[in-house]
Request: fold
Amino acid sequence: MTIQSAFANLINAIRPLYDNREAANIGHLLMEHLTGLGKLDRIVHKDMDLSPKQESQYNDALEQLLAGRPIQHITGKSWFYGMELIVSDQVLIPRPETEELVEWVLLDHPAQPALRLLDIGTGSGCIPIALKKHWQAADVWAMDVSAGALAVAGRNAQLQHTPVNFLQQDVLAPQAAAVLPCLNIIVSNPPYIPEKEKAGMQPTVHAFEPSNALFVPDNDPLLFYRRIGQLAQERLEPAGKLYFEIHEDYGPEVKTELEKQGFADVNLKKDMFGKDRMVRATKRGA
Reply:
């Protein structure tokens, strides 16, 4: 099987699961992973045969793709804010919307300050690692309830040479705030998808990514926003900032909840698709 025929066969096989653009994207990611060749080199060497080992890996990967497994779990890698990160089924695959959240935090603080910041529900560590990469003087902390997620995040921090203080802690636990230092910034992309929406989601998401990082009870979709807001009131310094990624349908509700908790300057921000996907709030001064 040549590089060209393998790519064409892959696209045809997965096209029922993905649109043409996404299928091609997946094909390029897999072929680069298998051959070590970039797109242009694969064009030059399109008639090169895959080795027996590569062909075996190809067949295994194709079987997994047809079962709905994300390409990032097959390659073990995902890109976020210019960094190649390790991912597994222990963490959410980083999304472009979360890159926009990181960008908002960075733009709000252009002087690369020596601040103390915390990411809650860190998963792969993409948010704190990206922020530490740009703010070398910052004291960066990250929390997650999952030991498996923290193992992935710790490895990513090592590979990116970005020291981060990782804590295994359930933010919903009453003692969560007690283990934290005083902070200038809290960032979180918490679980926010109501359980009732699971049926309408692609199986590639809910079947292969950790449910505890995705879903909240139908009767309490603001659960994590309310709790993290309470924690922020306890641990943020006066004038400290709280940043959230949010469900596009719950922007006004999150804004109202934070205002009710006493935060000032609560702002909704739209993502690249014009959807309410981020919130920023400020703790009032003493």
The longest helix spans residues 20-35.
